[in-house]
UniProtKB/TrEMBL annotation:
Keywords: Glycosyltransferase, Membrane, Transferase, Transmembrane, Transmembrane helix. It comes from the Eukaryota. This is UDP-GLYCOSYLTRANSFERASE 72E1. The chain crosses the membrane at residues 118-137. It comes from Salix viminalis. One of its GO terms (molecular function) is glycosyltransferase activity. Gene3D superfamilies: Glycogen Phosphorylase B.
Length: 159
């Protein structure tokens, strides 16, 4: 199962899990009254593979929970907070769940999964630059003296 906010590319990950690995995936969508036509068409498409079920949480009225001018991260946080109020009952209704993969903005779901004894994992896609830097960190740790945490200079990272 993947839990994700609206307007994401995560349905493609769910499709790949079904098609390439023969998983059964319930893709839970946080629905808002700010509908993305492309996302909606994708999730309601008749071309979704068997084994991929799209489950919509009750619609969140964005205008009721988010103030005008609210920073994007805060806006996403209040939308998710409102949407997941019904998640526990949805997960119970889905039956035996093997695991939940959640979006970075849905970390509150960890608590619900813990209550239901469902393993939960964070699905995080990073840019190539962040991935490269992360993979290069052990090399930097070995080669840069003094240690980065103690240094007063910025280390040069090879590109």
């Amino acid at each position: 199962m993947l839990v994700a906010e609206n307007k994401s590319a995560k349905p493609h990950v769910a499709k790949r899990l079904v098609v390439l690995h023969d998983f059964h995936v319930s893709f839970i969508v946080i629905a808002t009254n700010e509908v993305s036509a492309g996302q909606d068409n994708l999730l309601r498409s008749s071309t979704l593979p068997p084994g991929l079920d799209v489950v919509y949480l009750p619609t969140v009225d964005v205008f009721a929970v988010a103030a005008d001018g609210m920073p994007v991260a805060a806006r996403l946080s209040v939308i998710v907070e409102e949407a997941i109020k019904s998640l526990k009952s949805v997960l119970v209704e889905l039956g035996k769940i093997k695991a939940v993969a959640i979006d970075l903005f849905c970390t509150q779901v960890f608590d619900i999964c813990r209550e239901l004894s469902i393993p939960a994992y964070l699905f995080f896609t990073a840019s190539v630059a962040l991935l490269t830097f992360s993979l290069y960190l052990p090399t930097l740790d070995r080669e840069v003296k003094p240690r980065i945490s103690c240094g007063t200079h910025s280390p040069r990272v090879q590109s």
